[in-house]
Structure formats: structure tokens, C-alpha cells
Design brief:
745 residues, mainly alpha, two-stranded antiparallel ribbon, 33 helices, 62% helix, transmembrane helix, O2_lipid_transport_reg, acyltransferase activity, transferring groups other than amino-acyl groups, Nose resistant-to-fluoxetine protein N-terminal domain-containing protein, signal
Length: 745
């Protein structure tokens, strides 16, 4: 008990001796905020005075219990006076929920977190303003719950300069202060909810209730220059979810669609039962005559049946012409994307030096260099496009504008329903995942969906004001769609033979590579987004992310390789290709060298070695070409009998439904990852790759697939069926009109 009182007194001494608000500052802060902070400081002073008299347990027997009871909330800790009082007197924490100096400071622990739940349970027995009051009809209801909020004070410490001088492992690092910066040092505070982030920033800088070091604060400067502010930013965690009208509209729409799906499922089930009875009575040959009709509106209604859609999801095609291994590659690439994004959350870890140290380990490049997973998706997109569309395309059809109108319409109608519905869901329900102390969810990203979601629907969010985006992962959708818009030029080139198609493809790849060289040489760009964000240079981040990483004209080589490979697979699907064992082995060896070289060559750069702009441009351009060549051989080997056990494993039937889920799983995985990580009440702590995969990657992948299953059954498959019905009706009508014209002639 003696130790506790001594510790409590030391803890609040700095707070009770902080200066009061000057009149000039009071004009800048809301009146309610000043009142609540003043109330808190007065309570601290009273409590500290009493604690001075309680240095010994005996003195506490004569403690002024009422004073203690009235002011203990300011310390926010349960302090028993006697055994019986311990059962009846308690207060939930405020000052105790503040951050303290954490362990592992030598490991650059820059996240000084207090107790989140303790902060949110604060109540003041003598001040109802610290309690939630609302009205239900004419009845006034008071909830003795916290009117405080858990915030982060971002401290303006010269960490970047210190790290820059500490060794060769960190050569380029931002020295800026603020949320999201790589050297941001932040400590949690628990303050009245009446204070805005701006209020708290002014209050913390003026009252000196945090340790101050700069001359301006020692001289009691009120509004110092930004670079000299000890607290450069304050960010508060959401404490309430206030549903707006859009939330209720979306809820009604989701409920309606779910209801339609349930009713359609029941109708589909009873139709199947009825058809089975007819089959048993009439026989299999006469089943079509007696079966329940699915024509008209009923067919469109049954498109929402989760029973038939579930069968479509699980169905394994027996078409021998289907490409094998594609769904396996697609799903594994998706898990790679998830692990890469989880890697990005380690920027908030409380032991960043350990994360920096693992860059010395070459094996971690598989994780750090997960960017190739996106190139794999681009490759598969081009592969499946050319393999499925070229057999239907002729020179005569290529001259028909209607063919290309349907070509583009199919793309829009196929992707947009599931995409649009999730954007709306993310904008309205996404804030529910933004809970807990950790700043992992970008609430601004969700709000942007309400303002700038129209750019996503036009698939231009990566080129028009890309900094103002909705769902930061949606750049892929825009980039892939822009490649799709360009693809007819490549597809038509292959109609004239392999030579024109390959020559045109090579010319586009060369132009893309030259543009890649120009950007890296002109702007002296870093190789990865991780390195760009470590510089803290907004211009460099903007150019690398918007003009290189998310740009279709830079990322298009894998897509073109996919189109070329789709053409090759199409032309060889009826041909038995015999290859010498040594040739097959050499191809596999080259493929492994190219793929591993693409991933691991960058290790020395990530470790801190200097690469010239020419080296960086060469790696960025040719690593993706090498990766695409490796994927091309993998697809060829699996489907032409040169893959052995690898091909058998990648062709197993269970990959098919998993691969079908990747589209919706990709859309939702960021929300799922953030929701899972926000369940933690302590800052992220990096242990190792195995621990991360076991506790974060696998749960995130499983949860994303479960959510994707629901979204696929509710939106993707039903609207894909409706799209196919509409396109088929449109094409058949066009064909019948042509047939009538021909008959007239």
C-alpha cells in the first residue's frame, strides 16, 4: 500500500503542477473542454494533497473518505482503504489509463499505450457531465458510463535523426511527426470527450502536463512553430457509432436482398423436389416435358437461389479444355496478398527494430516482396481473357461494333454489382470495425467512399485524384479494367497470326519498360512503397504509388504475357507436345531461377545497400518480365503434362471453389484483417513469420473466405447469372434481326 501511494503521488505530480489556461488559450478551446479539464486538474490536486498524508497505512485510517471518494475518479484506479471498503468503493480509471514508459525502449518502442477499456469506463460521482445522458420519449435516462475518450498524443521527438546516426541499417528515414509516419512516437491519453483533437493538441502543448523539453515551452509560449510543438498531432479513437440515414438505407437493401435470396432458395428447393417426383413418375426421357418451367420472371428470380448458386460455387467442371492450376495459383496469390498487407500493419508494432533486423534475413523477402502476387493476378487476367475470348473471335466479328459493346458491357456487369455493393457496405458498416486502441482502420478511407465512390464505378480512381480514394486496395480493379479496355488491340493482332500478335505485344512491353526507366531516372525513385514511406517525402510517395505502382501502363507486361500465353495454350490444346526430359528439367530450372531471382535479388537493397537509379529501374522493369515468364512455363507445364506431382497437386478439385471466392475475398480482406487486429487491446508485437501466419494470416484468410462466400452467394453469382441472361437475350435478338434481314434479301 505504501508503494502504491508513493507511485500514485509521483504519477500525478506533473499533472497537478502543470500551468493553468491563459485567457488567450481559452479563446481557442471550447468552453466545455476547458471546464472538464479544469475539473479534472482540481480533483487531482485535492487527491494529491490527501495522498501526501497517506504515506503510511496508519495515516490512511483517518483519511478523509468523502474527499477520496469525490476525487478518486481523477486518478481512475481502484484503491481499497479497508477490506470492507474495497468491496464497495471503486472508481474506473483515467490517469491510470494514461500511457507509461513502456519496456523495450532500446528496441524503439514508439507506441506507449495505456489501458483502453479502463479509460472508457470512467465516471465522476459528482459531475453528471462525465456521464452519458439521453432522452427516451419524455424520460431522462442517465448512464454512468465514460464521457472520456482514448486518444494518442503524437510526440515531436527527433527519432529520425537519431536513427539516421545509429548505423547503416536505417539510412533513409522520415523525421516528421504525426499519425502514420514511420518514426511517429505516440503515447495514449484519456481525456474528456468534450474536447476535440484540436482542443487537446492546444491543451497538451500549453498546460505542460506532458514532459516538455523545448525552449518555447519552458518560456510558456502559447502557439509555437509547428516544428517546435512537442505534441504535433492528437488522434482520438472513436467511442460511439452513430448510424446515419445511409446506414439504415443500406441495412434495408441488404435485408431485402437477403430475404429475396432466402425465398428464392425455398422456391428452388421445392422445385427440385417437384422435378424429382416428375422424373420418378414419367422417367428420365420425359422429364423435360413435365418439369416445372423456369421461363420468364421465375428464371430471373431463381438466379438468387443460394441452393443453386452454392452448387455453382462448388461445381467442378469436367471440360477437358479448361486450364488446370489456375484456381490454385489464384488462391495462393490471394493468401500472399493478405500476408503482405498484414506485414504492412507491423509499422504500428511496439518492436520495430526487430522488424528492421529481419530485413537482413533473405527468406523474409518472400513476405516483404508480396507485390508479385498482384502481377500474378494481372497475368491470370490476360491468360483467361485470351483463352476464353479468342476462340469466339473472327475477323468478321472483330469488325462488328456490337461485339465490342458486348465485350465491354460484360466486364462492367460482371464486376460492378459485387464491387459496388461492397463499397456501399464498407462505407456504412466499415466504421464498426474501427474500435479498440490501435489505429489500424482508416476511417477517412470509408468516408471517402461516400464522396469519391463514383470514381470507383468509372474505374478511374487510380488516375483521377488518386490521393482521394475509396478503398485503397481498389486501385487494382481500376488498373485491371484499364488493361481490359486496351486488350482488344492485342486480341485483334493475334487474329492475323502469332507473328503480328507477338510483335505488337513486344512493342507495348518495350514502351512500358522505357517509360519505367524514365520515371525512375528522372525522379530518382525508391524501389518499394515501404522505402518510399520511410522517406516521408509526399512527392516521392505520390509519384511512385500513382505513376508507377498503380499505373496500368507500367504494370501491363504481366497482363500481356498472360494474353500471349492464352493464345499459345489455345493453339496447342489439341496437340500432344513431346519434350525431352532434359529440356523439361532445364525449363523448370530456368523458371525457378527467374521466379526466385525476381523475389530475392532486391534483398541487398532492402538491407540498406545503395542502388543507382539505373539499377532500380532495371530491377523494377525486368523482374516482372522474369516473373511472367516463370508463370508462363508453370501454366504450360501443368496443362501439357510436364509438371509431375506439382501439377497433380495444383489441379486438385478443392482449389476450384477457393479460386472462385478470391474476387470477393480480395474486396473484403482489408476490412477483415483490420477487424481481427483491432480485437487486440495492446499494440501489435512482432514475434516471427510462423507466429504471424498462425495467429494473423490464417485467421484472416479463413474469415475473408467465409465473408466472401456470403457475398458471392448474395451478389456475385446472382448478378452474374442475370448478366448472362441479359447478354444472351441481347445477342440472340441481334442474331434474329440479322437472320430476318438475310431472309428478306
Amino acid at each position: 500500500m505504501n508503494s502504491f501511494f508513493l507511485f500514485s503521488f509521483i504519477l500525478i505530480f506533473n499533472f497537478t503542477n502543470g500551468q493553468d489556461f491563459d485567457d488567450s488559450v481559452r479563446k481557442l478551446i471550447t468552453e466545455k473542454c476547458i471546464k472538464d479539464i479544469d475539473t479534472w486538474k482540481k480533483s487531482l490536486r485535492k487527491l494529491s494533497a490527501e495522498l501526501l498524508q497517506c504515506g503510511k497505512l496508519e495515516a490512511c485510517q483517518d483519511f478523509k473518505k468523502q474527499t477520496f471518494h469525490d476525487n478518486i475518479y481523477s486518478l481512475y484506479r481502484k484503491i481499497p482503504l479497508t477490506y470492507h471498503e474495497a468491496k464497495t468503493i471503486f472508481v474506473v480509471p483515467e490517469l491510470d489509463s494514461f500511457a507509461k514508459l513502456p519496456p523495450n525502449l532500446l528496441g524503439f518502442n514508439r507506441v506507449w499505450s495505456g489501458d483502453y477499456d479502463e479509460c472508457l469506463e470512467v465516471e465522476n460521482p459528482n459531475d453528471n457531465s462525465y456521464q452519458s445522458v439521453f432522452y427516451f420519449g419524455s424520460s431522462k435516462i442517465t448512464i454512468k458510463s465514460c464521457r472520456t475518450q482514448f486518444c494518442w498524443a503524437h510526440l515531436n521527438l527527433p527519432i529520425g535523426k537519431i536513427l539516421a546516426k545509429s548505423g547503416d541499417d536505417v539510412k533513409i528515414v522520415s523525421t516528421t511527426c504525426g499519425a502514420g509516419k514511420p518514426t511517429d512516437v505516440k503515447m495514449s491519453i484519456c481525456m474528456p470527450r468534450s474536447c476535440s483533437e484540436h482542443d487537446l493538441k492546444l491543451a497538451l502543448n500549453h498546460l505542460r502536463i506532458l514532459p516538455m523539453t523545448t525552449k518555447e515551452y519552458l518560456n510558456h509560449s502559447i502557439v509555437p512553430v509547428d516544428d517546435d510543438k512537442f505534441v504535433c498531432d492528437v488522434t482520438c479513437r472513436p467511442v460511439d457509432f452513430d448510424p446515419d440515414y445511409l446506414f439504415w438505407i443500406v441495412t434495408v437493401i441488404l435485408g431485402t436482398i437477403t430475404f429475396i435470396c432466402v425465398v428464392a432458395t425455398v422456391a428452388d428447393y421445392y422445385q427440385e423436389v417437384e422435378n424429382e417426383k416428375i422424373e420418378m413418375s414419367l422417367g428420365e426421357k420425359n422429364i423435360k416435358e413435365g418439369a416445372v418451367s423456369e421461363e420468364g420472371l421465375f428464371k430471373y428470380f431463381l438466379a438468387f437461389s443460394m441452393l443453386s448458386n452454392g452448387k455453382s460455387l462448388m461445381r467442378i467442371s469436367k471440360n477437358l479444355n479448361n486450364l488446370k492450376g489456375v484456381e490454385c495459383i489464384r488462391f495462393i496469390s490471394f493468401t500472399w496478398v493478405v500476408s503482405g498487407h498484414i506485414w504492412g500493419t507491423w509499422k504500428n508494432a511496439d518492436n520495430p527494430f526487430k522488424i528492421i533486423d529481419i530485413l537482413k534475413t533473405r527468406s523474409y523477402e518472400i513476405w516483404v516482396n508480396a507485390f508479385f502476387s498482384v502481377d500474378t493476378f494481372f497475368f491470370l487476367s490476360g491468360l483467361m481473357l485470351s483463352y476464353s475470348f479468342l476462340p469466339k473471335l473472327t475477323k468478321r466479328k472483330a469488325m462488328d461494333p456490337m461485339v465490342w459493346a458486348v465485350f465491354y458491357l460484360h466486364r462492367i456487369l460482371r464486376l460492378t454489382p459485387a464491387y459496388l455493393s461492397f463499397i456501399i457496405f464498407y462505407a456504412t458498416y466499415g466504421p464498426l470495425t474501427d474500435s479498440g486502441p490501435n489505429e489500424l482502420v482508416r476511417r477517412e478511407d470509408m468516408e471517402n467512399c461516400k464522396k469519391y465512390g463514383w470514381k470507383n464505378l468509372l474505374y478511374i480512381n487510380n488516375i483521377y485524384e488518386p490521393r482521394k480514394n475509396c478503398m485503397n486496395i481498389s486501385w487494382y480493379m481500376a488498373t485491371d479494367t484499364q488493361m481490359y479496355l486496351f486488350s482488344p488491340l492485342l486480341l485483334v493482332a493475334f487474329l492475323f497470326g502469332p507473328i503480328p500478335g507477338i510483335l505488337f505485344s513486344i512493342s507495348v512491353i518495350v514502351l512500358s519498360t522505357l517509360l519505367n526507366y524514365w520515371l525512375f531516372l528522372h525522379y530518382d525513385l525508391p524501389l518499394t512503397l515501404i522505402q518510399a514511406y520511410m522517406t516521408g517525402d509526399e512527392k516521392i510517395i505520390h509519384i511512385l504509388q500513382d505513376f508507377v505502382y498503380e499505373a496500368a501502363y507500367i504494370r501491363i507486361p504481366p497482363f500481356i504475357f498472360g494474353i500471349v500465353m492464352g493464345y499459345v495454350m489455345l493453339k496447342t490444346r489439341d496437340i500432344k507436345i513431346h519434350m525431352n526430359t532434359s529440356v523439361v528439367f532445364a525449363c523448370w530450372l530456368i523458371s525457378f531461377i527467374l521466379s526466385l531471382g525476381s523475389i530475392f535479388t532486391i534483398h541487398s537493397y532492402n538491407r540498406g545497400d545503395y542502388w543507382t537509379p539505373m539499377q532500380r529501374a532495371s530491377y523494377y522493369g525486368f523482374s516482372r518480365i522474369a516473373w511472367s515468364i516463370s508463370l508462363s512455363w508453370l501454366i504450360f507445364a501443368i496443362n501439357r503434362g510436364h509438371s509431375g506431382l506439382i501439377g497433380k497437386f495444383m489441379s486438385l478439385s478443392f482449389w476450384t471453389p477457393l479460386g472462385k471466392l478470391t474476387f470477393c475475398a480480395y474486396l473484403c480482406h482489408i476490412m477483415i484483417v483490420n477487424a481481427i487486429l483491432n480485437l487486440e487491446r495492446s499494440p501489435p508485437h512482432f514475434v516471427g513469420a510462423f507466429h504471424t501466419y498462425l495467429t494473423k494470416v490464417i485467421p484472416s484468410v479463413v474469415a475473408s473466405c467465409l465473408f466472401a462466400t456470403i457475398w458471392t452467394l448474395l451478389f456475385e453469382i446472382p448478378f452474374a447469372k442475370l448478366e448472362s441472361y441479359c447478354i444472351l437475350k441481347l445477342v440472340s435478338r441481334k442474331s434474329s434481326e440479322k437472320k430476318k434481314e438475310f431472309t428478306k434479301i
